[in-house]
């Protein structure tokens, strides 16, 4: 009994530490500047105010939200399509150098993303894609090593007899992939979707470097540039952070069953 109490207490403390930053975002977003300076950060402002949300939504922020939605949607769609095809090729098709090529590609996950930012920017500059949607999307829309690794491992865990039976019936590789294998991969696709959406929505370094105008500015860059004079308006920044946080929480709640199913199925293989 004592061990169980200690375990629950440890989990509760860990949960509190994890949730506390988000709680500060919510509380600060509904405080005035005076309340922010006169109350403790973990205490709510009384009375709460929606002036920060009204002010930030009354400017160009809705445009940045739309830009982020478009970027996230295109990156997610592109990664799901190209990652699925690449993973299927690495898992099921036979060609010379397949495994060597796959592990070389996966090995790029060991390279910090900050290392590749400058070479990517130089490439985009030579292609005249700086401050364009094409430049913003190009480095990541064709898939990521992690996504291809995840889907490949899931494909390899599916029974080979399904493909063999389909080939006997005259089905080609594309038909087998779309009509037989993909319906069985919904847990992995759900997991990849939520990972891609969250990473794309929260992307900051590459959009900051490759874009400079309002036409392509995303929400993370917009929040970072919320300044008044020589200071920082923390109320507006937290209001922007709250707006950026709500869709992510909703998406996680919607997709969490796919994550659980993916972990369970992977553990059984």
Descriptive notes:
By secondary structure, the chain is mainly α. 74% of the residues lie in helices and 1% in strands. The protein is built from 14 helices and two strands, in the order αααααααααααααββα. It has helices at residues 2-29, 33-38, 51-57, 61-92, 98-107, 113-126, 133-137, 145-156, 160-168, 173-184, 186-201, 205-210, 219-224, 234-268, and strands at residues 227-228, 231-232. A two-stranded antiparallel sheet has the order 1-2. β1 and β2 (231-232) form a beta hairpin. The protein is globular. The two termini are 34 Å apart. 26% of the residues are buried.
Structural class: mainly alpha
Query: What percentage of residues falls in helices of 4 or more residues?
Result: over 70%
Q: Segments where pLDDT lies below 50 for 5+ residues?
A: 265-269
Strand content: under 5%
Give structural attributes.
disordered C terminus, 1% strand, mainly alpha, two-stranded antiparallel sheet, 269 residues
Summarize the structure.
By secondary structure, the protein is mainly α. Helix content is 74%, strand content 1%.
SSE blueprint and pairings:
Blueprint: H1 2-29, H2 33-38, H3 51-57, H4 61-92, H5 98-107, H6 113-126, H7 133-137, H8 145-156, H9 160-168, H10 173-184, H11 186-201, H12 205-210, H13 219-224, E1 227-228, E2 231-232, H14 234-268
Antiparallel strand pairs: 1-2
Helix pairs in contact: 1-14, 3-14, 4-8, 4-11, 8-11, 9-10, 11-14
């Amino acid at each position: 009994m004592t061990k169980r109490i200690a375990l629950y207490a440890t989990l509760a403390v860990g949960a509190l530490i994890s949730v506390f930053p988000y709680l500060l975002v919510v509380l600060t977003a509904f405080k005035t500047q005076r309340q922010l300076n006169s109350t403790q950060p973990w205490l709510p402002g009384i009375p709460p105010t929606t002036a920060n949300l009204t002010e930030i939504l009354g400017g160009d922020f809705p445009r940045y939200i739309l830009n982020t939605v478009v970027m996230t949607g295109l990156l997610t769609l592109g990664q799901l399509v190209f990652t699925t095809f690449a993973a299927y090729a690495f898992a099921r098709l036979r060609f010379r150098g397949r495994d060597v090529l796959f592990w070389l590609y996966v090995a790029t996950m060991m390279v910090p993303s900050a290392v590749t930012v400058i070479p990517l920017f130089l490439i985009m500059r030579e292609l005249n894609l700086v401050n364009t949607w094409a430049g913003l999307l190009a480095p990541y829309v064709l898939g990521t090593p992690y996504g291809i690794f995840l889907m490949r491992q899931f494909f390899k865990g599916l029974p080979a007899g399904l493909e063999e039976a389909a080939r006997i019936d005259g089905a080609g590789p594309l038909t087998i992939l779309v009509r037989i294998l993909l319906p069985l991969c919904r847990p992995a696709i759900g997991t990849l979707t939520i990972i891609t959406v969250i990473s794309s929505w929260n992307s900051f370094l590459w959009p900051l470097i490759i874009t400079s105008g309002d036409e392509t500015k995303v929400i993370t860059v917009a929040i970072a540039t919320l300044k008044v004079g020589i200071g920082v308006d923390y109320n507006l920044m937290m209001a922007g952070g709250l707006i950026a946080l709500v869709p992510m929480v909703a998406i996680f709640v919607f997709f969490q069953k796919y994550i659980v199913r993916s972990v369970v199925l992977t553990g059984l293989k």
